Amino acid sequence: MSIPQSYLKGLQMLTKGNNHEPQTIDDIIFGNSESKLRIQDIVTGAEEIPYCGKSAILLYGVFGTGKTTLANLLPHTIEKSKTGCELAWEQELIACQQGFNGPQVMGFIDSILSKSSLNASGLHYFVIDEVDNLTKLAQQSLKSAFNTTRAIFILTTNNVSQLDKGMLDRCILIEMNAAAPNAYLEIARSIAIETGEQLSDEELLPTIKGANGSLRNLFHNVARLARRKAQEINGVF
Ligand SMILES: Nc1ncnc2c1ncn2[C@@H]1O[C@H](COP(=O)(O)OP(=O)(O)OP(=O)(O)O)[C@@H](O)[C@H]1O
Ligand SMILES: [Mg+2]
Questions:
Q1: What's the CATH number for 30-175?
Q2: Of 51, 142, 184, 235, which residue is 20 to 30 A from 83 by alpha carbon distance?
Q3: At a CB cut-off of 8 Å and minimum separation 6, what does 136 contact?
């Protein structure tokens, strides 16, 4: 018995990963219109940053909603909007590991800030991923780093309640939770089509709801649904 093409494509999608990786901020699915507006305000310069003691943007919310993806898109987009130029000095990524302490993080940030930025804006950009993994003391020392006007910090977390309040006060807060299920229909339809299966919106919506905003789960679950439909239709196994 030969294995149908659609079934193989479904398997490929699960192993190959995401062809839909957002390329610009317009590709990000925001959980609510306020979050999208806040990002638009920052990107267009309507909300200036760094300004008045706020030099950081915190993206917080449940797993898989695109926080790290958005954090990595922001430096280029902000620099381009501020100056019309590309980044000459890419963002520094700090992927926080459990128990990272203050001297480790601050030593790194200070070493970058002590150099002149090559960017047209004169700004350095830092992405600090999973900031809740830093110790409390490290978070408190970040607070003082955020007083600078020479850098923009973009932070992500799943656990906003665990963050130092002083640090939070220096951040523009952007909630990144699940959007309404309809917001994911277009992407879910295209995932299904890539597997060679046509799934109706009625078939897709329960799976979308089950993913709870996690694009990772959405990819896996829609591909699984399409694979099962292919199995049913073709009588595989
Ligand atoms: N709007 C989108 N369209 C398609 N894929 C997306 C979208 N947003 C995110 N993704 C994909 O979803 C996956 C998860 O995104 P990402 O790692 O940015 O989420 P996260 O919120 O940082 O997750 P975590 O909370 O687990 O750290 C990535 O493979 C990313 O490319
Ligand atoms: Mg992340």
A1: 3.40.50.300
A2: 142
A3: 164
Q: Quick one: DSSP state of residue 84? A: S
Q: Is the CB of 216 under 6 A from ligand 1?
A: yes
Query: 197 C-alpha vs ligand 1 centroid, how far in Å?
Result: 24
Please give the distance, rounded to the nearest whole angstrom, from the Cα atom of residue 156 to the centre of ligand 2.
7
Sheet holding 92-95, edge to edge: 92-95, 124-129, 151-157, 56-60, 171-175
Alpha carbon 177 to chain centroid distance?
Answer: 11
Residue ranges for the chain with pLDDT beneath 50: 1-4, 6-11, 13-16
Domain spans in the chain, listed from the N-terminal domain onward:
5-21+180-232, 30-175
pLDDT at residue 75, as a whole number: 98
Contact 175, 28 (CB under 8 A): no
Which residue owns the Cα nearest ligand 1 atom 8? 66
Residue closest by Cα to atom 16 of ligand 1: 66
Contact 5, 236 (CB under 8 A): no
pLDDT at 196: 83
Tell me what percent of the chain is helix, strand and coil, each rounded to the nearest 5.
50, 15, 35
Query: Residue with structure tokens 């190959």?
Result: 16
The answer to whether the pTM exceeds 0.85 is yes
The pLDDT value recorded for residue 150 is 96
Per-residue CA distances from 135 to 112, 141, 218, 226 (Å): 21, 10, 32, 43
Residue 67 near ligand 1, beta carbon < 6 Å: yes
